[in-house]
Structure formats: C-alpha cells, structure tokens
Specification:
The complex is a heterodimer of chains A (about 425) and B (about 120).
Chain A lengths: L2 H27 L2 H22 L5 H21 L4 H20 L8 H8 L6 H11 L5 H7 L4 H17 L12 H20 L6 H21 L4 H14 L25 H15 L6 H14 L8 H14 L3 H15 L1 H12 L4 H4 L3 H13 L3 H14 L3 H14 L2
Chain B lengths: L1 E8 L7 H25 L2 E6 L7 E6 L2 E6 L8 E9 L3 H9 L8 E6 L6
Antiparallel strand pairs in B: 1-5, 1-6, 2-5, 3-4
Classes of the chains: A mainly alpha (about 425), B alpha+beta (about 120).
C-alpha cells in the first residue's frame, strides 16, 4: 500500500470516528465550534503521526484525548484575553472543564444520539438539519457537503454558521429528548437521513462519486441509529428501505443508459449482501412494537426483491401495502405508486380510476408538474390499449423529465407505440 | 434565560359580534388558566395583552424628520395581540409552555430568546 493509499485509509478511519468523537467533545465542552476546532487539530495531528507510529488500537480514544487537550489549550488562551469579563468567564469554564475531564478516563462515551437529535431539532430549518448532520455526524468536510448539494462553499458555510448560532442563541439543548417526544423528534431525524440518501440515489446533477458517498453516509448513519435505538422499529425500517434500494443500484440503468423498471431489472446485478442485511433489518423492525410508514415502504421493497423473478412480482400484496401506506401517510406520490401496483394487480383501468380520484382534489395543481404522475398515466393507458392518449401522456412526461435515463426510457416507450 | 412569546392572532373584527365575544371570552378564561400554570411552575415573568391594532401608531424616519402615522408596523393577516415573558432553562422548555398556550389554536406563537451571550 503506497503512501497515498495509506493516507486514504487513515482518512477513512478518522472520518468513521469523527462523529463519535465530536459528539463526546460537545458533551464535555458544550460548544460546537470549540469542539470542531479541537477535533480538526487532533485529526491533523493523527494524519501526521499515525503513518509513522501506526494506527492506535482505539483511534476514537486517541482522537478524543488529543482533542480534549487542544480544547483546554484554547480555553486557556481565552482566559488571557484583555477583556476582563470574557477572561473571567473563560477562566471559570476552564476550571469546570478541567475538573470534569479529569474524572473521565480515555474511554469515549457514545453521545451520538444527543448530537443527532440536536442537529435534527425542529427549530432548525430542514436544510440546516441536513447540512449539520452531514458535517458533524458524517464527518464530511464543508466542501464535500457543498459539492453534494451543488452549492457554493461559502453558502453552505454560512448555513452551518447560522444553524450553530441558532443552537447557541436560542439555547437548543444538547440532549436526547424524553421518550414521550421520540415519536415526533425521531421523525425529523429519519427524514433527514432519508433525504440525504435520496439526494445521493435519485439526484442526477452532482458527480456520481459524490452522490455515492451520500448514500453510503446515509446508510452508515442509519446503521448507527438502529444500533443506538434497537427498540425503535422505524429506525430499523429506514435502514432496511435504504439497503433494499441501494442493493439494486447497478441494475437501475440499461446498457443504453435508459432507466429500467424494477420488475424488468437484471437480478444478477443486485447486491446480495445488502439485500440480506436489508431483509434482516426489516425483520428487526417487525419485531418492534408498532408499524410505521418506513416499515410499510420497506415491506414493499422486500416484496419486490424476494420474488423469484420480475414476472412473479406479487402485485396484489404490493397494492395492499400501498393502500396501508396511504392510510398512514397519504400523498399524491403514494397514490401514484399505488396506481401502478393496482394497475398490475387488477388491470390498467383500476389504476386509472385511482389516478382519476386524485385529479379532482387539492393535489390537482401539483400533479400538473409531477412527472411520475404523467409517466404512470401513460403506462396505464398504454396497457389499456388507449394508444393516442398514452402517446399524449408520454409527451407530457418527457417535457417534465429532468434525468437522461428516465428520458431515454420514456422515449423508448413512446416510440414503441408507433404513433 | 428569558424567552418572549409573541401572540399573533387573526383579527376577530370580521366575525359577527356574538361569535366574536364568545371566542374572546373563551380565550381569556383559558389564558388565565395558562397564566396560573406558569406562575405555579415559577417560569412566569410578565404578560401583556395589547389593544386592537386599530389603536396602534407607527413612527418612521422621513429624511431628517420622524413621520407619525396611524396603524401598525405592517398590515398583516395575523396581528400582534400580546406577549408573555418566561424564564426557561432552554428552548425545549419554552416550546413546551408555548404549546400549552391556548392561542396556538387560533393563531401563531413566536418564541424568541432574549438578546445576549448565554449565561
């Protein structure tokens, strides 16, 4: 392994431990910025010394001790400030922290739950939650996060600053909320992780390597969350859902670059390790009390995946699961997906009827620009033999298309109509 | 640390008098109960119900002068009807009290911390 290779490996180890260490530092010092600066110093020291001295047996402990020393140094510097009030405050904080850290050995308590609940607090804007989670728990650099969301680095840096300032000024507490609030607060955390995953999985504009790292990060954090909250079914379910999607990532596009529908994918390209882990996570979810929306979505993904072939896809089961999902979390998106399943289970007219029910309601305005609605309508009309109407719907869907793979797929279907 | 809870309510003037009076009476009774809870918990500092926005006067700079005009800061659908100041340890505590405020049912409650470095 050359020097470059080992540096990459070291950086990967460091990044893997960063969330754990940072969470612990914030718990000790109560200050995001101080913790981040101290961690950065410790990481720099590690990348300098570990190539020669070797990676320590417990990297997280090494980093934590090094970072704590740096943080105490910085606090001492603050006490020497000219401003008396500031110096006094810093002095007291230093005394308090020195006592506190003396009592703790070099073990690292896992404070990541506190960190993730704080980063995903409802008082922070949704964009801020995502950025903060990726930066602190994910250990991604500001540049990496900016790249992932196609934002200028300065914009993202400002967003992070504002979020940390809000945490400080409004006094958002650094803690795990009481269990009575978990149902709501956990929703926010899971939504952030799923958003990160989808940004990596479905977005088409950022570079593939960047999008891949988002998916990997989301899955890694979901694993951590499921391990930290073993009795929360939805945490396991979200992990299952992500893995079952991710397992199929190499079968999504054909050799012509067009996207391939689930039941037509080359199953040999599905990754077995992720499928097994995903199905195990779903079983873990099912063994927990309650049955939430992520569990139903994961069950749908599982139904697709355990079928021996695309032709054996259990559409009736899937349609019933979508109906269950609609009762839990109704939305035009769910209704459109349900229409697909009903169309395959009971015939295209059944699917079209479900879509028709949407068209009259409040959602009608949103549907006009919702590409999957038009694409689904087109497919159902095609299967029903209503070719002229199908062609019109395909053309509308093509106009709304934002990704090349989807465009090629729809163009192919349209051409197949021969109109 | 002190948190200001600012109560923004839809104007009730648009409703016919009997309905309006019933809503106001119900709200006042519930606000009195909420006030008592805040006192018992030791978080209450002050509360102020403001007169209707029609009684408001605004001052703005106009060149070297100050212009006095009739009306509130901004013509908005929801109107600042009052405020409360609570002493809470953190935002979660302030939010928990704000959620119990009866005015949340009919309008918006903004929760804003006092200015300054955390003590």
């Amino acid at each position: 392994m050359g020097l470059d290779g080992s540096r990459e490996a070291l950086e990967a180890i460091v990044r893997g431990e960063a969330g754990l260490v940072l969470a612990s530092l914030i718990a000790s010092f109560g200050d995001f910025d101080l913790a981040e600066d101290a961690l950065q110093d410790a990481v720099a020291a590690a990348l300098e010394r570990w190539p020669q001295g070797g990676v320590p047996q417990r990297p997280a402990a090494w980093l934590t001790v090094a970072a704590r020393r740096r943080a105490l140094d910085r606090l001492r510097q603050r006490t020497m400030r000219a401003d008396k009030a500031e110096a006094l405050r810093a002095s007291e904080e230093l005394r308090r922290t020195e006592i506190a850290t003396q009592e703790v050995d070099d073990s690292v308590t896992d404070e990541r739950l506190r960190l993730v609940f704080t980063c995903c607090h409802p008082a922070l804007s949704p964009e801020a939650r995502v950025a903060l989670t990726l930066r602190t728990l994910g250990g991604l650099s500001t540049e990496a996060v900016a790249r992932a969301f196609l934002l200028p680095v300065a914009t993202l840096a400002k967003r992070l600053e504002r979020a940390k300032r809000k945490i400080r000024d409004a006094r958002i507490p650094y803690r795990v909320p009481p269990e009575s609030e978990w149902a709501r607060r956990l929703d926010s955390v899971l939504a952030v992780l799923y958003l990160i995953f989808n940004e990596g999985y479905s977005a088409t504009e950022a570079e593939p390597a960047v999008r891949r790292s988002l998916c990997e990060e989301a899955i890694r954090l979901a694993r951590v969350l499921a391990a930290l909250l073993p009795r929360e079914g939805e945490a396991h379910a979200l992990l299952a859902l992500m893995l079952l999607h991710d397992a199929r990532r190499e079968a999504r596009f054909g050799d012509d670059g067009a996207s391939v529908p689930l039941d037509e994918q080359d199953r040999l390209r599905w990754r077995c390790d992720e499928l097994f882990e995903g199905l195990a996570a779903l079983r873990a979810a099912a063994s927990c009390p309650g049955r939430g929306a992520y569990q139903v979505q994961a069950a749908i993904a599982a139904a697709h995946v355990v079928a021996p072939s695309g032709a054996d896809t259990p559409w009736h089961t899937i349609a019933a699961l979508y109906a269950e999902l609609e009762a839990l979390a109704s939305s035009p998106v769910v209704r459109v997906n349900r229409a697909v399943a009903e169309g395959r289970a009971r015939g295209p007219e059944a699917g079209l009827a479900l879509l028709a029910a949407l068209e009259g309601g409040d959602a009608a305005r949103l549907l006009a620009d919702y590409q999957p609605y038009h694409a689904t309508r087109a497919d159902l009309l095609r299967r029903a033999g209503r070719s002229e109407e199908a062609a019109a719907a395909y053309r509308t869907a093509l106009d709304l298309c934002r990704g090349e793979p989807e465009r090629r797929f729809l163009a192919g279907r349209l051409a197949g109509l021969g109109i | 640390m002190q948190y200001a809870l600012l109560f923004y309510n839809p104007p009730l003037e648009s409703q016919p008098a009997p309905a309006r009076e019933a809503v106001v009476a119900e709200m006042l009774a519930e606000m009195r109960a909420w006030h008592e809870e805040l006192e018992r918990a030791g978080v209450f500092r002050t509360m102020l119900r403001l007169a209707s926005v029609q009684a408001a006067t605004s001052l703005r700079r106009n060149g070297d002068d100050v212009l006095v005009s009739d009306g509130p800061f901004a013509e908005t659908k929801e109107i600042l009807g009052g405020l409360a100041l609570l002493e809470c340890a953190d935002l979660d505590e302030a939010l928990a009290w704000a959620k119990r405020c009866p005015l949340v049912r009919i309008g918006t409650v903004e929760v804003r911390p006092e200015f300054g470095p955390p003590r």
